[in-house]
Amino acid sequence: MSSAEKSPWILHYNASSCNGCDIEILAALTPLYDVERFGIINTGNPAHADIFVVTGSVNEQNKEVLKNLYDQIPEPKVVVAVGICAASGGVFRDCYNVSGGIATIIPVDAYVPGCSVRPEALIEGVVKAIGVLEKKRALFDNGGAK
Amino acid sequence: MNLMSAIGGAVMFLFLAPILGGLIFGVDRVLTARMQSRRGPPILQPFYDIDKLWHKERAFANPVEVIFTSGYLVLIAFSGVILFSGGDLLLVVFALALAHTFLLLAAYAANAPYSIVGAERELIGVMVAEPVLLLLAVGFFMVTESFFVAEILSKTVPAILSLPGVFLALFAVLTLKLRKSPFDIATSHHAHQELVKGVTSSLSGRTLAKVEVAHWYETIIILALMFLFFAGAPILGVAAVVVCYFLEVLMDNLFPRVTWKMTVKSLWIITVIFAVANIAVIGVYGGVV
Ligand code: SF4
Predict the structure, then answer these.
(1) What is the domain extent for residue B201?
(2) Residues with beta carbon inside 6 Å of ligand 1?
(3) Which domain holds residue A63?
(4) Cα of A28 from ligand 1 centre, angstroms
(5) Which residues pair with B148 in a beta bridge?
(6) What is the pLDDT of residues B236-268, one digit of tens each?
(7) pLDDT in tens, B115-169
(8) Does A61 touch chain B (CB under 8 A)?
(9) Is B289 a member of any domain?
(10) Residue of chain B minimizing CA distance to A49
(11) Which of A40, B41, B86, B270 is the most buried (most CB within 10 A)?
(12) Domain presence at residue A146
């Protein structure tokens, strides 16, 4: 277990979600659940982040923002798509301005299903993402990733 | 012999200060968590964070960040080396001030709004802390007739007896130096700050790691300056430093939303009432109050 796994810092972005999933994410980040136990910090700053937690179906207004935030996170990084909207566009899929999921804009490493997601699923998703982060870090250290 | 102990002190500082500094911040985070009825991270968490940052991609908002953050780290370490080898207090204070200039330049170089506002507020922080550090050097000179740490340490009567006001002012400045308050400057491990992370907003990976390690060095320097007031009574000195640090953590949790305006006002008032008055009294009456 390397330090990538012990110190995952999170950036949360709402790409036109209904706020249902965001409330669950923020609730899981409150002192009550104390994610700092695992070295997790909610940074609010792409330059410091390792895990990009995104909710919502992404629309024409914010896809550039999403792309920009992703690009600002230094490698190794992972993306967690939270909620059905983030996975496929969900109920908003057919709207005229909706891209239909995070993966249409940036690569996704873990999907968390649910509308809205349950905290257990959310935590499991982030844990899975940390596993991927670990692998990416090993690759990155060997000069594999860019 | 003197040269040997000076070199010994400098080398010890260079190698042990980051270890001690990291541990202090680890304990700090656990203590803070416990005060908020949380468990908190492992004590070694600050080291994990640094190791993680070291393995991140080297991405820069502006490549000169590398020079400025390295300058910050080197100058802080230089300041500590002077202090721990028994050198000149004035040099310690000026090297610290210069080091902060480098950090500010790194933040300005990023040319990003949060960094720039962060740098401006950091500048305010320097403006508030610097007078106290200068008065500290002056105070020690008036009491011990020397700016040299080695000579101050050789005194048997602790300087705190003559300089209680200056000590209190330094204690007040400690919250600023630990980057806990004010929250709209602080780059501590609290959740979102008003300015994201202020000066360090645009720094990432290794540059951020350097700033963090420099911060550990600086913390040890400030705590060592506090200890200096108790030269001649080392056990009392260590106890005082530990108590002061604990009080800082407590204060940070009791007043987590102190703004920079409040900080400037209160710290300048404290500086004038305690530190300046203290030195004026010594100036008029001479020596021990
Ligand atoms: S998945 Fe459901 S709860 Fe989550 S953002 Fe979409 S509609 Fe809202």
Answers:
(1) 3-284
(2) A 17-18, 20-21, 55-56, 83-85, 90-91, 115-116
(3) 3-141
(4) 16
(5) B88
(6) 889 999 999 999 889 888 887 788 888 888 888
(7) 888 888 888 888 888 888 988 998 888 888 888 888 888 888 888 888 888 888 8
(8) no
(9) no
(10) B204
(11) B41
(12) no
